[in-house]
Amino acid sequence: MACADLLTEVARDGFTGFPSRDLERETMDGVMRAVFDASADVAGLAMKCASAVARSGTRATAREAAETLCARAGGRDAEGRDAACVCLKTMMVDIGTFGEEARSGTLETCVPALASHVETAAREGASADETNAAAEAVDVIHSMATAMNAAHIGLNEEHRELLQRALFKHLEHGKSGTRKRAAQCAALLAARMDGDALSRTMKTVMGLLEEKISSEGKSSLYSFILGATARACGYRFRDCAGDSLALLLRACESSSEEYDEDTIDNIESALQAMELIITSCQSGVQDAEKTAPRVDLALKFLSYDPNFDDDEPEVMDTCDGDDDEEDEYSDDEDYDDDDDESWKVRRAAAKVLSSIVSTASEATLTEYYDAVTSKLLSRTKDREPSVQLDIFSVLGDIVRVSGRFLENDPDSNMGAKLRASTSEIVRVIARESTSKSAKTQVAAFTLLSSLAAVFPGILSEIDDEQSRSELMIAIERCIGDKAYGNAARIEALTFVSSVCKSKDLGVMDTFVPTLLPVIFIASADKYYKLATAALHSCASVVALLKREGSASAEHASLIKSLLDAVLAKLAAADEDHDVKEAAIHACAVILAHLNHHVNNQDQSRALGLLLERSRNE
């Protein structure tokens, strides 16, 4: 109760400090005793009180509290050590809100003590207690660095170098479970450095990484620091970007060909760091000559699968959409991939390609378009679903970037390349639309809708009539079958809306009688987003039915069914706002363009509903 009352008092806005130094010291002494209380509730409140008192107290009080906690954090009493470290983390989370004097007093005590705890455990023969204390100290340093970065506060150079020296030693000799956290701390500390200090630190990290590469040791942590620092520093990392990427390339290329956990970690971490550097420092990685080895490396590791011996060359699969044959990897019945982690490398390689596609110039992308697209399409049957999704994501990036280039230049070379490969991409989409993985189905239809947004005349671009028919069959099946899931059905409907904007609608004529009924089914669905997408498609297909010669007697029943489907949603009073809006729009489009094929009774009914909506909405 006393801790709760004290916390309420010192945390209120009007509290300006204790009336005397003696009272402040006595209060903090009492709080420190309560921090180590056997009751978890009392100790938890006391830790919050310690932070609140230190925040509004003097430099001396904050320093004394920090000394007490740091001493217990390095002790042999496990319970006392845990309580002290939790209290320190509580204070560090709030360090950005401390007054200047209180913050200085806390840091000038905590930083040397924490660095000492970490360094002590790095020596040979360190005891279990010292190792555990170092692990806790690393957690406290992480909390401190995170809070200070959020508050835009930096450590002085002496403290920063002290912590970095200790953290680098911990990377080599610390408790294995906390080395990654130490690497995170090193990156966070670098985020607040000035240019010269950042360059010196990165040279140190690159030197350590180079040593690991030369000795074929575990280099993943140093690669991680480079990537994490690039993400934290952004454009400020550009001066180090070129050398870092060159070294990371070496880390990948020099990795052992033998499959083991360290090799996987080394390659994955290097690729992840490359992705972060390319994404964070776009202006510093635009050199076309240096982009080539990065692309080659990513393409190489996109196929990295040492546990699966596939000596045959990768061939672009053009199987029919109805072919349910298992993928090329499923034939190896003796292979057990439960412990296989090579997919992490393939996924990291896909993300590197994504970063290059998103940042490189059109000339560079055009030069490598054929090699990249061919490899991506051949790898869409990867046996790891998460890798499949990332590959489809990269293909989506290529489509998006090509669309941006086409907006600026209709004669874009990148756009021409994409147009030429449309048929191949569509064949892959048709194949994966029948995948057993719902996420893969969604990824395939998302790519298709993106492609249609760039090329509304995509069906005309497909040079094979059979492929076109297989695609539309897959679209119709997806829209009408609830087993596909709402996300995939919405993407399929979005595709229909896009292709109806094409200037060459003749290729759609044969699909209208089978396509419209499944759209009507989707429009009646209870899920508002699906119904909205279906109603947008209803408005779009009017362009097919209004064409001269197409709105004939055979289409009369479809036009009536189309209007009935739209009016059913328009008449419902309890529909979502988006559904109502889409229904009003679709009804207006039908009456504007197909009115001469709508009987008087349906016209009156539609106009009456529109009038009613104009009064109520």
Explain what this protein looks like in three dimensions:
There is one protein chain. Residues 311-335 have low confidence and may be disordered. The chain is globular. The two termini are 56 Å apart. Helix 8 packs antiparallel against helix 9 (179-190). It has helices at 2-11, 21-35, 40-56, 59-73, 78-93, 100-122, 128-150, 157-173, 179-190, 195-215, 220-233, 238-253, 261-280, 288-301, 343-359, 362-378, 385-408, 413-420, 422-432, 438-454, 458-461, 465-480, 486-499, 512-523, 528-545, 553-571, 577-594, 600-616. 46% of the residues are buried. It contains 28 helices and no strands. The protein is an all-alpha fold and 617 residues long.
Give a quick rundown of the structure.
The chain has 617 residues and is mostly helical.
**Main sheet makeup:** none
Query: What are the secondary-structure elements, in order, as H or E?
Result: HHHHHHHHHHHHHHHHHHHHHHHHHHHH
Query: How many β-strand runs?
Result: 0
Rg from alpha-carbon coordinates: 32 Å
Helicity range of the residues?
A: over 70%
Distance between the termini: 56 Å
Average pLDDT confidence is: 87
Q: Categorize the overall geometry.
A: globular
Give the DSSP E fraction (strand runs of 2 or more residues).
under 5%
The poorly predicted ranges are: 311-335
Number of helices: 28
Structural class category: mainly alpha
